Automatic annotation (TrEMBL):
The keyword Cell wall biogenesis/degradation applies. Residues 32-58 are annotated as: Disordered. The keyword Metal-binding does not apply. Pfam families: Amidase_2 (PF01510). Residues 1-34 form the signal peptide. PANTHER family: N-ACETYLMURAMOYL-L-ALANINE AMIDASE AMID. This is N-acetylmuramoyl-L-alanine amidase. It catalyses: Hydrolyzes the link between N-acetylmuramoyl residues and L-amino acid residues in certain cell-wall glycopeptides. It comes from the Bacteria. Its EC number is 3.5.1.28. Residues 54-184 form the N-acetylmuramoyl-L-alanine amidase domain. InterPro entries: Amidase/PGRP_sf (IPR036505), Amidase_domain (IPR002502), NAMLAA_amidase_2 (IPR051206), TAT_signal (IPR006311).
């Protein structure tokens, strides 16, 4: 009881002391960290995955990033988000793209390890991007989704110095040991890479 009543005022005093001592540039950084979680991709909506569906980390320090892994979700945008929110599913990806308007949701911070590749080594070294739709329904792969996704991938490559080529921007089916087929034969890699290069 005593501890709990004392703690808030003590913390208040300490924070006050720190505020007067810190230069203003540091101050704004401190405030940003204390606020609600920010996204890594500007404009993305923060739709967090369950804490039971990813591994906290401090990448790229803990693990350098080498790959962007492209997925097709085999369900809708909303369906994907609810799968990631459900702690029983044990799956997640960093981002989900919506077909109709290219909306980007971020579900796991890039510093953390999402469970998307089905291969621990690749999970630790990659960012996973899910796309609303099905591998055999190319109508879901809209222009706006390609464009927004390519912009996102280009930014990730820039941030972590990942080469913008097919050796580093890979499909889920190319992850060793994967039994998944996504993004499938309708995914236009040539177009996607061209968009990533020009973004
Ligand atoms: Zn996949």
């Amino acid at each position: 009881m005593r501890r709990t009543t004392l703690l808030p005022s003590r913390r208040g005093i300490l924070a006050g002391a720190a505020l007067t001592a810190l230069p203003s540039a540091l101050l704004s950084a401190t405030r940003a960290e204390a606020g609600p979680r920010t996204v890594d991709h500007p404009g993305a909506a923060w739709r967090p995955a369950s804490r039971g569906n990813y591994t906290p980390s401090n990448r790229p320090r803990a693990h350098p990033l080498h790959y962007v892994v492209i997925h097709v979700a085999q369900t809708t945008y909303g369906g994907t988000l609810s799968v990631f929110r459900d702690p029983r599913t044990k799956v997640s990806a960093h981002y989900v793209l919506r077909s109709s308007d290219g909306r980007v949701a971020q579900c796991v911070r890039e510093s953390d390890i999402a469970w998307h590749a089905g291969n621990w080594d690749y999970n630790t070294r990659s960012i996973g991007i899910e796309h609303e739709g099905w591998v055999d329904r190319p109508g879901y792969f809209t222009d706006v989704m390609y464009e927004r996704s390519a912009r996102l991938t280009a930014e990730i490559c820039r941030r972590y110095d990942i080469p913008r080529n097919r050796a580093h921007i890979i499909g889920h089916h190319e992850v060793p040991g994967s039994d998944h087929t996504d993004p499938g034969r309708h995914w236009d890699w040539k177009r996607y890479l061209r968009l990533v290069e020009s973004a």
